[in-house]
Amino acid sequence: MIAALLVAVQAAGAGAGIGGALGAAADVRAVADTIPQVTLAEALDAAAQVDPDYVAALRQVGDAAWIRRSAWSAFLLPSINFQWSLSKFDPASFNIGTNDVTDKLSQFSLSASYDLFRGGAKFYDVSRASAAVEGAEANELGARYQTALATEAAYYDVIAQSQLLGVAEERVRRAREQFDVARARVLSGAAVQTDSLQLLLELTRAEVDLLRQSSTLTVARLELGRRVGRAGPVDAAPLDAVQVAELPISREQAVDEALRESPSLLVARSQQRLTDASFKAERASYLPTISLFGQWSGFDDDLVPDAFKRTTIGIGVSYPLFNNGARELRVFRANTARKVADAAAADAERTTIRDVTQAYEAFTTARASTELALRAVTVARENQRVQSERYRAGATTIIDLITAQVDLAAAEAGLVQARQATRLALAAVEAILGRRLF
Q1: Tally of helices (H runs) and strands (E runs) in the chain
Q2: pLDDT digit string (tens) for 360-405?
Q3: Class of residue 38 by CB neighbours under 10 A (exposed 0-12, middle 13-18, buried 19+)
Q4: Residues 340, 313: contact at Cβ < 8 Å?
Q5: Domain range list for the chain
Q6: What is the third-level CATH fold of 2-433?
Q7: By the 8 A CB rule, do 163 and 416 touch?
Q8: Ramachandran angles phi, psi of 71, nearest 5°
Q9: Are strands 37-38 and 79-95 parallel, antiparallel or unpaired?
Q10: Host H or E run for residue 34
């Protein structure tokens, strides 16, 4: 009865299951021939144009540059203002320009002012603006590499899922072959009937994994498409399977470089300088402000005032003796912000040391794991071949054969994952350092 069941399953159920799983995998493979494919360099270039965080960081550089220009302008140039107005009165009123009663008054003024002394606040404003530019540039660099990291993760995921789909297909193929062998041995009486049932169970599991892998690959391609600014799926061009070389710098060198050049740390330090300059600028309000001013004005009842002109020049001193504690509040808040920035910069240094060490060790471990995974695949492949031949000869059990097949699939998947982890760890180190290592 079990033999008849196996024949029926072989002819109908298993065939349909295999056909469904392989058909889904074939559909995914066929889609890869129709959707656009990008290289890693193309993906990185495209992602930099559409990633919202990077676009925002790039705009912040422009904003900070204009703030610095404004600070230098206030430091070197006077503030100039022009005004013109034409008024009509009813009843008529005295016009200072015509020295008569009239129903119209036109006037203009051209005024300028320049702060000679603001307690050093102008110097601090320039320093603050320069720190903001440095911080914006460091933030842009960091955002660029964070965008690259996310894009590379999506790119490597497509490659890994595609390779894992191949692993799943091979697992189904091997299970199918062994199922045919077991069925023949059961029908011939050379093996017990449960052998075919065991292999049918393995075949069913392999089919389910193949369907899941097909779905995962489809989603991974959509994620890569999102990263490069396309609404549909995008495929990744295959990468060279050659083992990634060792990092060209030691861990200690990586830590030292990160403490000097890491974008996130540079942002924290620029914020530290910015808040320090802001505090000093606010503290400068305890000193008086000395300004030069001048004005040229005209009055008339015509559109172009020309009847009477007046020129005014002078020097002024401003010093707020008491403004209900508003000045003290601003200084206190600026000092608080400075202390917070100091603590954040110190913490950023400690975080950078941890992060770069973690990324470096992750790369070293993943690279070594790749070499071990290659060995594991070689061993598992040979073990599966031997167990298959032994089972055909009746010298081993079905459990040993299934275990060898599962171990081979796991070893092949482990190799794919180790290679992906190595590439991602390299991208993480580069993101922290803010430069390419290869």
Answers
A1: 10, 6
A2: 999 999 999 999 999 999 999 999 899 888 888 888 788 888 889 8
A3: buried
A4: no
A5: 2-433
A6: Outer membrane efflux proteins (OEP) (1.20.1600)
A7: yes
A8: -65, -40
A9: unpaired
A10: none
Which pLDDT score is estimated for 14?
Answer: 47
For the CA atoms of the chain, what is the radius of gyration? 37
Write phi, then psi, for 289 (nearest 5 degrees): -105, 130
DSSP letters for 314-365: EEEEE--S-STTHHHHHHHHHHHHHHHHHHHHHHHHHHHHHHHHHHHHHHHH
CB-based burial, 231-269: b 16+ in 10 Å, e otherwise: eebbbbeeeeeeebeebeeeeeebbebbeeebbbbbbbb
d(CA 273, CA 132): 9
CB 246 within 8 A of CB 438: no
The β-bridge partners of 281 are none
* CB-based burial label for 11 (10 Å; 0-12, 13-18, 19+): exposed
* Token duo for residue 39: 């290289």
Task: State both tokens at 339.
Answer: 């202390």
